[in-house]
């Protein structure tokens, strides 16, 4: 077995070679990056687009199904899928038709249209919660839920979990280190001082109860599985126990399924028959068009009406002008009725299992100390021989040198992974041939790291 430091050194060498190859084979992307750099930070409209590890960003001219084509004419099988925004494939025909039809009849008016009732009925049928609101992003939805929870409970604090991800939410930018809640490293422009939240280890009901016992927590906000580190799955009984603890101590609880919607039809909440007070879903709910939803119980809705009736006139601080716009609602209706179906999930999860098994076999064949984690249509390669159980263990499993080398190797051979870690998504448009290509190319990347690989 090759030791980790040797693998890391080889990874740096491999990444350097792959970066040179990328630069040589993408002259149009290089030129476009120079042009856009005159007006956009780093030559991209969102600085995250620089996180792929390439010398300059790809420039995409088309994306359909599970395939992407760049400005240099290279074709890619996409297992990133917009980090989940295109979970059901790029531009599903039903959603594309709905967007085109609505575009000629208005994009936004700050008034509801006839799609709203149908969307609400589908959301309740799929996820079980009777009441809903629409936002532009999951970040907005989580921020709204936090404000509602504080208004309903009269309490100030939010309980989150070390390693969590809830978008651009200040209360979630914390880690649990040495028994304390601290701000995440790498933040830009964060206001000094505590953000009104407390972080505890995931899968630790004792730590959660100790935090809740103080009686000042308004909301427990969690993903059903940690997804923005090396993926961490919930241990049996953890989520059910967490919901019970929150209610016992007078707090509300929200499950943010923006990433774990890949688990199953209806998400983790439906598969495990969970009963939170709030539920958040963003990214794929409108096929990748900016939109998100948050659902809540009848008891919460009654409390919300009481808060609104009692407050002074004026802006509530919850909501944005483009939330629930006509275009987003048309896309959401098409997604919920024609695209996000049990049949799609059956295909996605079965093929994701085939993918995970194939990579597992290649890992075992080479004796690498790594493992695969799977959650429905979402699978992830982690650089430990056993899956992590909390955020601290997940951080130890991350290795940016290995990630960058593997991602560049795959990209140069026509396969895209999510740039932030080794996460792979399978869409309804993905087929066995695409899965086979990923497994074979990943096996070649392993060989390159072990000293037996080729160069593109």
Automatic annotation (TrEMBL):
Q: Does the keyword Isomerase apply?
A: yes
EC number(s) in its UniProt entry?
A: 5.4.3.8
Write out the entry's keywords from A to Z: Isomerase, Pyridoxal phosphate
Asked whether the UniProt record includes Isomerase among its keywords, one would answer: yes
What molecular function terms (GO) are annotated for this protein?
glutamate-1-semialdehyde 2,1-aminomutase activity; pyridoxal phosphate binding; transaminase activity
Q: Which InterPro entries match?
A: Aminotrans_3, PyrdxlP-dep_Trfase, PyrdxlP-dep_Trfase_major, PyrdxlP-dep_Trfase_small
Q: Which Pfam families match?
A: Aminotran_3
Q: Which cofactor does it need?
A: pyridoxal 5'-phosphate
Family annotation (SUPFAM superfamilies) = PLP-dependent transferases
Family statement drawn from the similarity comment of this UniProt entry: Belongs to the class-III pyridoxal-phosphate-dependent aminotransferase family.
Q: What is this protein called?
A: Glutamate-1-semialdehyde 2,1-aminomutase
Q: Which organism is it from?
A: Kaistia hirudinis
